[in-house]
Design a protein that fits this description.
single chain, alpha/beta, 9-stranded mixed β-sheet, 5-stranded mixed β-sheet, 9 helices, 25% helix, binds zinc ion
C-alpha cells in the first residue's frame, strides 16, 4: 500500500485477522504464504533445483513453520534489506499420548512450550490447532493443518475457599495443575484420537485406511484481538509476540520496490532457543543465500553490504512494577519502536546498527526508544544474534513496546504497529541504505 493511505485502524484491523487466523506457528506460516502469494511471490521447493531471476519474488516454507521470502533487485542487487521475526509463541503443547481419565473427567496431558506465563491460562476458553501427520492408503506420509475452531477445553482455577493462600503465593506445578479439562468421561470413553479423527473427517477429505501417526498440536485462547482503554489506547491479543512483527514485515515486503534486493524471514522455535532446522540457529538462511549466490565471493560481498532488522517485542514499563526496570531507560507505549541493547550481546544491536536504524526513524519522524535490562536481572534474547552470527551480517534488534509478554493475552499501544510499519516500509523503499564506511 502506498505511503499515506495506511492508517492505524486499517492496519490494526488486518493485523487482527492475521492473529485470529494464525492459531499455531504452522497456521502463521500458512497465513504468511497467502499474503505473499497475493503479492505476486511464487513458491520455491527446497527439494528441487532452483532458478531465480531479478524482479521475480519467491518464497520457501521449511518444516511448515518457517518462511523465507526474497526478491533479487532489478537495479540494485549489491545489498539485501532483511527483516526477521518468529512464528512461534509460548504455550501448552499436547503430549503424544494425552488422554487422562481422572475421576469423571477426561483431561489432556500437556508440555509447556517455551517460557509461558502460566497463571493467565486458567479459566480461559481454549481450542486446539496445529499439524498432524498421517499415512495414506498407499502408504505415503502426508501432513495437514488442523484447528478445532471452537472452545474444547478449559483449565479451571481452584476456588479461593480451597486455597486460602492463592492471593499471597500461587505456585504452579506444570505437571499436574494445568491439565486442561476436555470433557466428562463418556460411556464409550472416546479418546482424543477419536475426536481428532472426527474433526479431520469434517475438515479434510480423508480416504478410508488413513491412519494418524503423530501430531504437533497446541492449545490457544478463543478470545479475539481487540482494543482496550477509555480512548482505545491499547490493543490486546494472544501471540502478539511475535505475530505482530511477522504481519508487519509481510505487509511491507508485499509492497517493497522490486528494484531492490530484500528478504523476509520468519523462523520457528525462537521461544525454545532457535536450535532446529527451521530455527534461527539452523542453516535455513545460509542455505537460501548459498543457493541464490553459489559463488562465495559474490555472496560474501553482498552479505557484507546487507542489513538485518530483527523485529521482536520489547518490554514497556509496567506502572505497578517500576522497580523491575532500569529507570534511565523507561519504555512507553505509543511512543515508537524500541532498540534493544545488551552489553553481552543477547541482542544483535551495536552502535553502528543502532545508528542505521535511528537514521531510518529520523527520516520518517518516528520516535525511537532504547531498552536495556537491569544488571540484577537476566536479559532475554531473540533471533538477531544467531542470524547475525550465521551470516556475518550487520544486524539490529528492535520491536514494539509491549506489556504482559508471554501471557496468553498480551498488549501493546494501538499506534505502535503503524509506527513500526512506517519505519520498515521506509527501510524497504529507501533508494540506498545509509552508507557504512568500512573500518579499513
Ligand atoms: Zn518473541
Amino acid at each position: 500500500m502506498p505511503e499515506g493511505t495506511m492508517n492505524s485502524q486499517t492496519l490494526n484491523k488486518k493485523l487482527f485477522s492475521f492473529l485470529e487466523e494464525s492459531t499455531s506457528p504452522f497456521h502463521a506460516a500458512n497465513a504468511l504464504k497467502n499474503i505473499l502469494i497475493q503479492a505476486g511471490f511464487t513458491p520455491l521447493n527446497e527439494h528441487q533445483k532452483w532458478s531465480v531471476q531479478p524482479g521475480k519474488p519467491r518464497f520457501i516454507i521449511r518444516e511448515d513453520g518457517a518462511v523465507v521470502a526474497f526478491n533479487i533487485g532489478k537495479k540494485d542487487n549489491s545489498q539485501f534489506r532483511i527483516a526477521a521475526s518468529h512464528t512461534d509463541s509460548p504455550g501448552l503443547k499436547l503430549k503424544p499420548k494425552p488422554d487422562l481419565f481422572q475421576k469423571s473427567y477426561h483431561q489432556l496431558g500437556v508440555e509447556v512450550y517455551g517460557g509461558a506465563l502460566l497463571n493467565p491460562w486458567f479459566d480461559r476458553e481454549l481450542s486446539i490447532s496445529g499439524r498432524i501427520s498421517f499415512s495414506t492408503p498407499s502408504c505415503q506420509l502426508d501432513s495437514k493443518l488442523v484447528d478445532f475452531r471452537r472452545p474444547v477445553a478449559i483449565i479451571p482455577s481452584i476456588a479461593i475457599h480451597l486455597d486460602r493462600e492463592a492471593n499471597r503465593e500461587k505456585k504452579i506445578n506444570p505437571q499436574k495443575d494445568i491439565l486442561p479439562i476436555f470433557g466428562l468421561t463418556s460411556k464409550r470413553k472416546q479418546s482424543f484420537a477419536d475426536h481428532l479423527q472426527t474433526l479431520l473427517a469434517e475438515q479434510i477429505d480423508l480416504k478410508n485406511g488413513t491412519e494418524i501417526l503423530s501430531f504437533d498440536l497446541f492449545f490457544y485462547e478463543m478470545k479475539k484481538p481487540g482494543y482496550v482503554g477509555i480512548n482505545k489506547d491499547f490493543i490486546v491479543s494472544s501471540r502478539l509476540d511475535n505475530l505482530l512483527s511477522c504481519y508487519i514485515i509481510a505487509s511491507v515486503v508485499s509492497q517493497a520496490d522490486k528494484d531492490n534486493s530484500f528478504m523476509l524471514i520468519c523462523n520457528n522455535h525462537e521461544e525454545i532457543g532457535s536450535l532446529s532446522a527451521s530455527g534461527a540457529q539452523g542453516n535455513l538462511l545460509e542455505t537460501v543465500f548459498k543457493r541464490i549466490y553459489p559463488d562465495p565471493e559474490e555472496r560474501y560481498s553482498i552479505l557484507a553490504n546487507s542489513f538485518l532488522i530483527s523485529v521482536d517485542n520489547a518490554h514497556a514499563l509496567h506502572p505497578n512494577f517500576p522497580e523491575k526496570y532500569d529507570s534511565s531507560h523507561d519504555i512507553e507505549l505509543n511512543t515508537g519502536p524500541v532498540l534493544k541493547i545488551n552489553a553481552n550481546h543477547k541482542y544483535a544491536s551495536t552502535s553502528i546498527s543502532n545508528g542505521l536504524f535511528k537514521i531510518l526513524c529520523q527520516e520518517k519522524r518516528i520516535p525511537v526508544q532504547e531498552f536495556v535490562m537491569r544488571n540484577d536481572m537476566a536479559c532475554g534474547s531473540t533471533i538477531g544474534p544467531a542470524t547475525a552470527a550465521k551470516l556475518g551480517i550487520k544486524a539490529v534488534d528492535v520491536g514494539i513496546a509491549s506489556l504482559a509478554m508471554h501471557s496468553i493475552r498480551e498488549m501493546t499501544g494501538a499506534k505502535d504497529p503503524l509506527m513500526l510499519h512506517t519505519v520498515l516500509n521506509h527501510f524497504f523503499q529507501r533508494d540506498q541504505l545509509p552508507q557504512v564506511y568500512a573500518s579499513i
